[in-house]
């Protein structure tokens, strides 16, 4: 066992000699004392080094941000410090003196931070997001493990498309084409016929030429598939599943949510029952004059808010011209930058909004919902919205035709509130061989590479279905992020895969 302790364990070692290892988040000297803000991944704490401990004091000379150190000292309670504990250092061993660190505390643009993603992960915000991501994955798996599901690992090299040929990544498989998995679903269906309740969890790939805040080319999806489940069963399952994930994050990651300044009350609301509507009802809802009035009122309110922000900008600029102290100039400068960012964001939103409202008014039955419609719909509810029975033309070939209305399929999309939109997509599957073959022909699909999949409809076909939850979209929603790029350690976006 190592003889150093984790910062998160410090409260158990009060008034005792301790040895810590970590990185210097910040260091400053004030006369005969140096203050080291130490982080080790489990937490942060302040270490004080007095000049009286001459060797320790001298060892830190020239050590800047992110230098790695070992500190021995005595811990004591310090309610005002991070973690509530402070360490008075007696010995300091420098493990590595870092070069001038590129990410300073001052604000950097997102392009710069993305180029330094490998270092950006060390910042408190990014670490908090990664802890929430971990919790979401853990809770999702726990839910299935506790409910009798068996984990099935589905292949990543696949012979054909499942979610449309247009978004396939093709790779050379010893001279033959193969494709990176868009989903594990088709294989998972075969396993559901063997084991009843199954799930898969893995990376999935979409060559979508989309540069939106919701799209990655490589993302992680967790997918359950259950024999004898019909659409209504899937609705109930998705509701239970999402509620438990959110509750797990609230129970274990409050500090992270607070650090991210997430509105926790909005998450506390996420409990069954969720509102439900069919696609057709959702279209009527988009056409409802009551909704348009509400959206117009919101638009007016936001115009007012922009006025306020602009006023604050001009006031801050005036103040900036009057102050001289360096720290004040820096603070006001940062405030100004933040205000201008807010104003810019709001201006863009206001510029697009009238067109979105027009689109909602003129939305035609039969089209797929885009990000804008999803945003409007999901904004009207405090809980995730389950939308079912979309037009078959806009959905995947495997979805079960709706016997009550053959223009639609027995599918569900779950739209996260606060404008986040689709986080779950799923359906009951077509279990009739001929209907499925007809549908594939309609789509121009060659049935040959799918014979194994069609076999499920030849040997004891039963109703069944499932869905997929996109991990990154869920992280984005639960953490309240503006863009999906921060939800995964190394995002893969169209036109971006470094580092
Ligand atoms: O709706 P999708 O395409 O559904 C399927 O892949 C089904 N085969 C799942 C199933 O029924 N077993 O994708 C499911 C979810 C979406 O709701 C979204 O959360 C996420 O995967 N997703 C993406 N996340 C990030 N970037 C992308 N490009 C995504 N495409 C889908
Ligand atoms: Mg979908």
Strand and helix layout:
Blueprint: E1 17-30, E2 33-39, E3 44-50, H1 54-59, E4 68-77, E5 85-96, H2 110-115, H3 117-120, H4 124-146, E6 150-151, E7 157-158, E8 170-173, E9 176-180, H5 185-195, E10 197-205, E11 218-227, H6 231-252, H7 254-259, H8 264-268, E12 276-278, H9 279-287, H10 289-322, H11 326-361, H12 371-379, E13 385-388, E14 411-416, E15 421-428, H13 433-442, H14 451-454, E16 464-470, H15 471-479
Parallel strand pairs: 3-5, 6-10, 12-13
Antiparallel strand pairs: 1-2, 1-4, 2-3, 4-5, 7-9, 8-9, 10-11, 11-16, 13-14, 14-15, 15-16
The structure holds 4-amino-1,4-dioxobutan-2-aminium adenosine-5'-monophosphate (4AD) and magnesium ion.
> What oligomeric assembly is this protein in?
single chain
Overall pLDDT score:
95
Helix fraction, binned, reads 25-40%
Radius of gyration from the CA trace?
27 Å
Amount of beta strand:
15-25%
Distance from first to last alpha carbon: 34 Å
Report the structural category: alpha+beta
Note down, in words, how this protein is organized.
With 499 residues, this protein is an alpha+beta fold. Helix content is 39%, strand content 22%. The protein is built from 15 helices and 16 strands. It has helices spanning 54-59, 110-115, 117-120, 124-146, 185-195, 231-252, 254-259, 264-268, 279-287, 289-322, 326-361, 371-379, 433-442, 451-454, 471-479, and strands at residues 17-30, 33-39, 44-50, 68-77, 85-96, 150-151, 157-158, 170-173, 176-180, 197-205, 218-227, 276-278, 385-388, 411-416, 421-428, 464-470. The strands form 3 sheets. An 8-stranded mixed β-sheet has the order 6-10-11-16-15-14-13-12. A 5-stranded mixed beta barrel has the order 1-2-3-5-4. A 3-stranded antiparallel β-sheet has the order 7-9-8, with no helix packed on it. A hairpin with a 4-residue loop joins strand 14 (411-416) and strand 15. The chain is globular and about 85 Å long. The two termini are 34 Å apart. The structure holds 4-amino-1,4-dioxobutan-2-aminium adenosine-5'-monophosphate (4AD) and magnesium ion. Magnesium ion binds at residues 413, 422, 425.
């Amino acid at each position: 066992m190592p003889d150093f302790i984790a910062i998160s364990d410090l409260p158990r070692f009060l008034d005792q000699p301790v040895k810590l290892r970590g990185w210097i988040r910040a260091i400053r000297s004030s006369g005969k004392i140096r203050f080291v803000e130490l982080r080790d991944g489990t937490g942060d704490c302040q270490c004080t080094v007095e000049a009286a401990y001459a060797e320790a004091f001298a060892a830190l000379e020239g050590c800047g941000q992110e230098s790695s150190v070992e500190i021995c000292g005595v811990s004591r309670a310090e309610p005002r410090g991070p973690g509530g504990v402070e360490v008075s250092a007696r010995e300091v061993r420098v493990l590595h003196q870092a070069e001038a660190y590129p990410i300073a505390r001052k604000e950097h643009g997102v392009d710069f931070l993305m180029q330094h993603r490998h270092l950006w992960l060390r910042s408190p915000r990014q670490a908090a997001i990664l802890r929430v991501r971990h919790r979401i994955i853990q809770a999702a798996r726990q839910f299935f493990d506790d409910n009798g599901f068996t984990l099935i690992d589905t292949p990543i090299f696949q012979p054909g498309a499942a979610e449309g040929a247009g978004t396939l990544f093709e790779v050379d498989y010893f001279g033959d084409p193969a494709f990176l998995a868009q989903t594990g679903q088709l294989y998972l269906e075969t396993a559901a016929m063997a084991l009843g309740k199954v799930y898969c969890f893995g990376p999935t790939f979409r060559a979508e030429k989309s540069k939106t805040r919701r799209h990655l080319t490589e993302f992680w999806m967790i997918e359950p598939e259950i024999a004898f489940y019909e659409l209504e069963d899937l609705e109930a399952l998705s509701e239970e599943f999402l509620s438990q994930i959110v509750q797990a994050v609230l129970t274990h990651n409050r500090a992270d949510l607070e650090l991210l300044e997430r509105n926790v009350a909005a998450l506390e609301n996420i409990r069954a029952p969720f509102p439900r509507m069919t696609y057709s009802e959702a279209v009527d809802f988009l056409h409802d004059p009551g909704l348009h009035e509400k959206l117009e009122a919101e638009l007016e309110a936001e115009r007012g808010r922009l006025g306020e922000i602009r006023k604050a900008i001009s006031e801050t600029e005036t103040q900036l011209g009057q102050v001289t102290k360096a720290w004040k100039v820096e603070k006001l400068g940062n405030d100004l930058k933040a205000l201008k960012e807010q104003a810019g964001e709001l201006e863009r939103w206001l510029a697009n909004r009238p067109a979105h409202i027009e689109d909602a008014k003129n939305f035609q039955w039969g089209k797929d919902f885009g990000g804008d419609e999803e945003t409007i719909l999901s904004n009207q509810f405090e809980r995730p919205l389950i939308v079912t029975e979309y037009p078959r033309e806009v959905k995947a070939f495997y979805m079960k035709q709706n016997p009550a209305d053959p223009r639609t399929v027995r599918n569900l999309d779950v739209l996260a509130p606060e404008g986040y939109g689709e986080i779950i997509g799923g359906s009951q599957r077509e279990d009739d061989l001929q209907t499925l073959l007809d549908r594939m022909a309609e789509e121009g699909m060659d049935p040959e590479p799918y014979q194994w999949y069609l076999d499920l409809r030849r040997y004891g076909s039963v109703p069944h279905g499932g869905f997929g939850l996109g991990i990154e979209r869920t992280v984005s929603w639960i953490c309240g992020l503006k863009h999906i790029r921060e939800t995964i350690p190394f995002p893969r976006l169209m036109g971006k895969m470094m580092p």
